[in-house]
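Need the bound structure for D-mannonic acid, inputs here:
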Amino acid sequence: MTARLSLSTLDDLPADIARPGYDVAGQKIGIVHLGIGAFHRAHQAVYVDDRLAAGERDWAILGASLRSPDTRDALRPQDGLYTVLVRSSDAIRPRVIGSIRELLVAPDNPEALLKAMGDPNVRIVSLTVTEKGYCHDPATGQLREDHPDILHDLSFPLTPKSAPGVLVEALRRRREDGIAPFTVLCCDNLPSNGKTVRRVVSRFAELRDPDLGRFVAEEVAFPSTMVDRIVPATTDADRELVAERLGVTDSWPVSTEPFSQWVIEDHFPTGRPRFELAGAELVADVEPYEAMKLRLLNGSHSTLAYLGYLAGHETISDTMAAPAFVRLVRGLMDEEVTPTLRVPPGADLASYKNSLLARFENTALRHRTWQIAMDGSQKLPQRLLGTARDRLKAGAPIDRIALGVAAWMRYVTGKDEKGAEIDVRDPLAERLRSLANAAGPEASRLAPALLDVREIFGDDLPNDPRFTTPVQNALATLLSKGAAYAVEHVARM
Ligand code: CS2
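Answer from helper R.:
Posting the output first, comments after.
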């Protein structure tokens, strides 16, 4: 039987495999990370690994999951070690990461997590809990006070389930113990993510106790970040590749692309690792970077995901092999998104967009359209609808955005173009499906029914015919002629 990756097998790896060049067990926890999934492991944990290797020993990560024990169960027997596979078309480069030193699962023992977050040496609590993990209303960015997890955490604040509940209870205890609050570092793809999370978390604190609400709003730092690295779900082929190249097994490696970007608002009152020496950009204002990335990368991604899936493409690179899709994304970025952006200082938009197309075309990454299609109700507002609002304000057309939105509508009906089931994963999936079933297959009824979901579209867009008409027309084309035809047709404009 092949041995497993762990501290005791680290020295046996082939010489060409990159690995932690530091005393892994001798590092101290300085960051608690909530949401220890593949994205964190391929992104922030790699920057931290670089800083640990450079001698900043105080910043190792304790990774916690607020839901499933999978990652802990996979990584604990490996002493927290795992492999990042960096895939480009000509090479696959494995690197073993050592920055995750401890793993916890909150539902098993919420007290252990709260205790860890109370350690004075922990000065950052970072998060990748996905858009829906903040229990907010995506259209308004406000806490959903009727969310079941929020109701639970207000009734049982000492055993919280939600990210806001965990943060607030940990911050309350630190305050009571006279320990400075940690910095809350959101690494999810939300608009103005620091501000949004501050709003949601301080509202939750206020509901527990107005004075605690004031404390969180005024005395806790919530820097904004822009995070970027494409990280498809791990496959068994990734595991086999690791076993072949490393000579040991790794239960849960992660696969990613060579590109990585992290732009961070430099506001850490109690300190931070020198992330800038690991390639991150520390800036005063993250918002232009964030809008550029959410609207160009993620907006294109979601558009490609819904249309690509409907047209029968399994991955983003398969979708990009069809020239009409490339023209569509080009047009979306150049004609509809770019005019809405404030260009970040020093950024070169033209080469940024070219590099996005090249990244989407990377055939070494099998990034499934189905994976990106998940949780659309939480993603559309910041990826496509904000852009649509800016365009409408400027009196400009939105045909490509409308096609993306219509493709989402077609997708959430739950039946593909051949009549087969679509496994729609979304917190609103059931409601969307029953709205679609009640409306039936005519765009003139289906579009208004779905536009009426205010958590997604707000109160303005459903009442603006400059938005609703192109969406309904695009949906009619999708329903009668299919996605491949619709993409050809719009891309020709
Ligand atoms: C993707 C993102 O799954 C998705 O919704 O659009 O995860 C995307 O790959 C990352 O944001 C890239 O940085």
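Comments: The chain has a mean pLDDT of 97. The longest strand covers residues 29-34.
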